[in-house]
Design a protein that fits this description.
This protein is an alpha/beta fold. The chain is built from 14 helices and 15 strands. It folds into 2 domains: 174 residues, Aspartate Aminotransferase, domain 1, CATH 3.90.1150; 247 residues, Type I PLP-dependent aspartate aminotransferase-like (Major domain) (Aspartate Aminotransferase, domain 2, 3-Layer(aba) Sandwich), CATH 3.40.640. The protein has an 8-stranded mixed beta sheet, sandwiched between helices. Strands 1-2-3-14 form a 4-stranded mixed beta sheet. It is globular and about 55 Å long.
Amino acid sequence: MIRDHSTKLYELALNYIPGGVNSPVRAFKGVGGNPLFFKAGDGSYLIDCDDNRYVDYVGAWGPLIVGHRHPTVLAAIQKQLELGLAYGASTEGEIAIARKICGLVPSIEQVRLVTSGTEATMSAIRLARGFTRRDKIVKFEGCYHGHVDGLLVKAGSGALTLGNPDSLGVPKAYTDLTHVLPYNDCQAVEHLFAENGHELACVIVEPIAGNMNCVPPLPGFLETLREQCSIHGSILIFDEVMTGFRVALGGAQSIFGVMPDLTTLGKVIGGGLPIGAFGGRKEIMDNIAPMGPVYQAGTLSGSPLAVAAGLATLDIISEPGFYEALDKNASRLVTGFSEKAEAAGIPFSSNQVGGMFGCFFNSDQKISKFSQVKASNITHFQQFFHAMLDNGVYLAPSAFETGFISGVHDDEIIQTTLDAAEHAFAVTGD
């Protein structure tokens, strides 16, 4: 494929934007080569600035569960657009989407709208600290919760140790309040709580880890978090910015049957426009200003456009059979990948939950730990990524990011993808 225009745009962007991108993973540092610049989306496809078409498995990193330019979502945005962009005041739409979220997620009794997933996790942690009057928090290796200072901690930190900053500009004194544990390690959780439970304000976790590719929880892991938080008076936060309304209508918590105290949301609830939210038990949410002493505010919180797009999206995915079809197509995709890899003699395994899937160039049949993800063959992934790109399929440009499927990825699209994968696996490892 010819991508000369993308190359020229990247060279131009380097003059005005740090690294030429406004979010690091877009720079293709994880796969090599120059990033693509896109100008349009259409259903399950992305079109770049050179008019090349790609089957899209990034979906704007998760929000586009109903595909690009869904007519119902566009109509909702257009209707609101004619009424205004922003008011800096309350709207009826805010009530409608809050009511919708509370009705679909049983653990959420009240919800506060914000403008990003990062803002949602930051605010939820502040609320947990304010509610418990404690400072220390727990996160897990390989889990990403936005670029919040206290959560930018080295993923390789050992069990029960305090992390070091993973970014310059983040004070070590701040990250000293963050304990980092291995994901899916119940024993490490129990040990930490036995030693430090009285100091822990909260545990924040991706109930399905989507930032070390796609790693579901092992049986008993989420249950252990719930048990230990309940015993020690800590707040359990599920970061469902990615999994919320992506893997099931009630989020990952509805699949695994574990109720957090607070939940953070984003992506899908904005239908492709910037939004975030955090919510949970009323007893906790009552501590947020103006009701309580924990301050949180935002100029564009509850954006009328984002709310309109989000409500339309939530209505579409609430239709009977939506998630059954999504799961079936995603399962067919990863099963096909595994079959094509085996035929080509390439070590490969996969995970999939609902509309999320992960591909690992690793001979381990079950990927459940961050150490296994890091041990995957990155060179094979890079070769596969570029071969798929050349065959018209756009995957996440990083071995540590999950893939997403939408409701418009039909049988024909899946078959097109698997045909491309057959060619890509054939040249992987050369």
